[in-house]
Amino acid sequence: MKTLDASSYTTALSARREQSLGQMAYDRLLDMLVRRDLPAGTVLHERRLAEMLDISRTPTREAMSRLETEGLIERQPGGMLVVKEFSLRELIEILHVRRLLERESVTLATGRIADAVLADLQRQMESLLAAGDPDAPGNWEVDRRFHDLIADHSHNAILAKTIKDLRLKTQMFNLSRMPERFEAVHREHLAVVAALRAKDAAAAADAIAAHLENFKQGIIRRLSEV
Questions:
Q1: Per-residue pLDDT reduced to its tens digit, 18-31
Q2: Burial annotation 162-182 (CB, 10 A radius, 16+ → b, else e)
């Protein structure tokens, strides 16, 4: 068995630490983008972000590079990085693709998700509905769990990753931005869960397609008011 000398071990340990910090920086910056703490058009300065995150500039730079690759921030002439602003057309196109992919995903996932898991998800949704707070952090967490659960149980890794990547680009329109959709979103999710529990793939596909179409129309209405 090959062993590492002290110097190599220290180097490997440092590399793992930097990788971990890079992931942490990415997660925190992504959360800030999703929650609109860094709204569209914000100029991103590596040094300032590193200070805000209280980490070195290397993992911050790695996180920014990853977000740029994913199309969530973009480089302007002169090399300046800014938070990307998606046009209405781009958002509609993304949601059109999401509707196609998530119909397929929920069809494949039908019968593969344990009923106990679905029942627990249903209880969480009903609790959020009863609380009636569009700004509650639980709304975002349950929404993510709902869509990720279906995507992961499609048992198609490429399909699941594509859905998750596209969802990130539409998450600036969460319930805190569209509180009028609060009750409708949870009831639409519950309709999908009910179809999944009944193992009715066609009904689940129709329900998730209707949910995403309603989401799209909500975005169009909101942007038309700006």
A1: 568 888 998 899 88
A2: bbeebbbbbbbbbbbebeebb
